Every structure is written in structure tokens, then in C-alpha cells.
Amino acid sequence: MDELAATLTGFARTLRAAGVAADHERTQNLLRALGHLDVTDPGEVYWAGRLTLCATPDDLPRYDRCFAAYFGGLRAGVARTSTAGVTRHLAAQAETGDGGDDDGTAAPATASRAEVLRHRDVARLTEAERAEVHRMLSLLRGGRARRRSRRFESAHRGALDQRRTIRDALRKGDVARLRHRRHTTRPRTVVLFVDVSGSMAPYAETLLRFAHALVRSEPRATRVYSVGTRLTPITAELRHRDPGTALNEVSKTIPDWSGGTRLGEELREYLARYSARGTIAVMASDGWERGDPQLLGTQMARLARQAHRVIWVNPHKGYADYQPLTGGMRAALPHLDDLVAGHSLAAYEQLSERLAHA
């Protein structure tokens, strides 16, 4: 039962990353429901999760996509159209050794492997495992922290809207009702710098797929640049709906794959050409700076003064014995709000949640 609870908790986290409000209470309801059902039947698992974890009609297609990715790599929509088809598919996987164990626990066993993949270092995955992680990463639809804009909207409470109140009074000949207004909000812009130098080669593709998910979630509030020896804007290429097409376009655009790292010079160029004011600035790099670390420290200080929050994503941070000892990390560390891991699917999900509440 503990293994089943861990599996379904991981599934709920995947749903939350995709935008479904599968909170703790709903997850507990699912566990209680499965206590009365056959957990080896994928159809019963599917419908129990759909009835307990989904809150709105918009959740249903997201739930189907996540169920398909998490429980055995089914095509999205198969579970929705036929639960018997789900059962037959996973049964066939179990018979061929492609998924599940031979004891009939096809769905939970497959999901357990997916949960293990969530926490594994993407640099150590096989090609098939990495493809599975990338497929789950494409489902990521995290929220975004919001900021107050200069625009106003009508409200029942708030500041007095003098213009609308006077206009109504002139039209009706009397002040029948006071009008109020409040500031609207908009998503806070995320500026993501992805290090594509040689030392980041095992993680660069996964980071770019994470960037693609961010752009797809908030296309107007996400800007992405590759950094290495040159600063290259790649937001437009990442707007393609298909991740594979987007990555192909990005690969044609970036001129300095697997080269050196001159983060200080590139940050200086960015801050000279653009503004980071009010943004969430995210640097995804291992900090192996080949340029002047002092220059990097100076530019990180400038970035911190402009940005709402500065987050550094380091793949090696995911290991307990990690120490920020490289010259680049030592220079940047005093100017960071957060230093987080970036080595696994779970780490990217946590980063997405952090961006939603920064």
C-alpha cells in the first residue's frame, strides 16, 4: 500500500505541474476510493483518478495526457475513449515484458518506474528513458507569479473611479452609484538563460525542453536566451507547438553549441541591450566560467538590482555533497535569491512551482 500511495502521489504531482488542481485532499480521496477497487485494473484506476482529481472540464484533457504519459506511455485520449483499451494495452505490455511485472500489477508497476524516472539524473538515463522524461516534461503547464499592472478594471471595491462615476451621474442626472476600480494583474516575465557550453551538454536539451514548456505556458511573459560564448535569443524558435520542431529550430539558431562559457560578458551584453526590471531572472548553468569571474559578479549584482528575483539552476545542486566551488558560482552566489537543482524531472517541476509563487 505504501508503494501505491507513493506512485499516486507522484501522479498527483505530475497533474499539478500540468495545471490540474490535484491537491492533497483530492489525492487522499483517490487513495480511499482505490481501497474499494481493484488497483491492478487500469480502467478502475483511470476512472477513480478522473472522478477524484479533476475539478473542471478543462482538467479532463490534461488528466488524460498525464495518465497516458505516467501509466505506461499510452496515447493521449485512449483512456478517455475506452477503459477496456487501456486494460488490453497494459496487459499486452506485461505479456511482452514492455511494462509492469508478471504478477498482474501492470499499472502500478509502470507508474512506479515513471516515479523513479522523475528523480533520476537526466545525464544518466538511456535514450529511451530520456525520451520518456522529455515526453512528461512537455506536459508541464505551471502557473506564473503575477504582478500589478498600470491598467485598471471595474471592481465592487477599491479606489473610487471618478471618471465613470461622473459619467454615470451626467447620463442619469443623479449620483445613483459610486463606481470603483482596481489595478489588473499580469504574469511576471521570466528571463531564462540556458548554458549550452560543453560542460552542460548532458543537460542542455532537457533544459531547452523545459524552456519550451515555459514558452508554451506563457508565450508573452517568457524570454529565453542561450549562453555560452555568445548571447542568442531563441524565444521565437521555442514558440512552435511541437517540442521536436522547436528544438530543431533552436539547434539551427545557436552558433556556439558545446563551446566555452563567458557568462559575465553575455550578461553585460544583455543588460546593455535589454531591461530585466521586475522580471524573474533564471540562469541555468553549472558555473564553469572561462571568462573573468569578477566581471560575472559585477553583472550579477546589476541583474539582482533590476530583477524581482534571481534564481540559479545548477544540475549538480541535486547531489547532497555539492559545494558551489567553481569561480562562476562563487562570484554569483552573493547575488542570488535561490540556488536550485536542475538535474531531473522532479527538479524542473519544483522550479515551475517556484516560478508560480516567486
Please give the structural blueprint.
Elements: H1 2-17, H2 24-34, H3 42-53, H4 59-70, H5 78-81, H6 83-96, H7 106-119, H8 127-137, E1 146-155, E2 159-160, H9 162-172, E3 180-187, E4 190-195, H10 201-217, E5 222-227, E6 232-233, H11 243-253, H12 263-273, E7 280-284, H13 293-306, E8 309-314, H14 327-332, E9 338-341, H15 345-357
Parallel strand pairs: 4-5, 4-7, 7-8, 8-9
Antiparallel strand pairs: 1-3, 2-3, 5-6
Helix pairs in contact: 1-2, 1-7, 2-3, 3-6, 12-13
InterPro entries: UCP010256, Uncharacterised_CoxE, vWFA_dom_sf
Pfam families: VWA_CoxE
Protein name: VWA domain-containing protein
Describe the structure.
The protein has 358 residues and is α/β, with parallel strands linked by helices. The chain has 3 domains: 2-119; 146-186, no CATH class; 190-357, von Willebrand factor, type A domain (Rossmann fold, 3-Layer(aba) Sandwich), CATH 3.40.50.410. Helix content is 49%, strand content 14%. The chain has 15 helices and 9 strands. The chain has helices spanning 2-17, 24-34, 42-53, 59-70, 78-81, 83-96, 106-119, 127-137, 162-172, 201-217, 243-253, 263-273, 293-306, 327-332, 345-357; strands at 146-155, 159-160, 180-187, 190-195, 222-227, 232-233, 280-284, 309-314, 338-341. A 6-stranded mixed β-sheet has the order 6-5-4-7-8-9, with helices on one face. Strands 1-3-2 form a 3-stranded antiparallel β-sheet. Strand 4, helix 10 and strand 5 form a beta-alpha-beta unit. Helix 1 crosses helix 2, helix 1 crosses helix 7 and helix 2 (24-34) runs antiparallel to helix 3 (42-53). The longest helix has 17 residues, at 201-217.
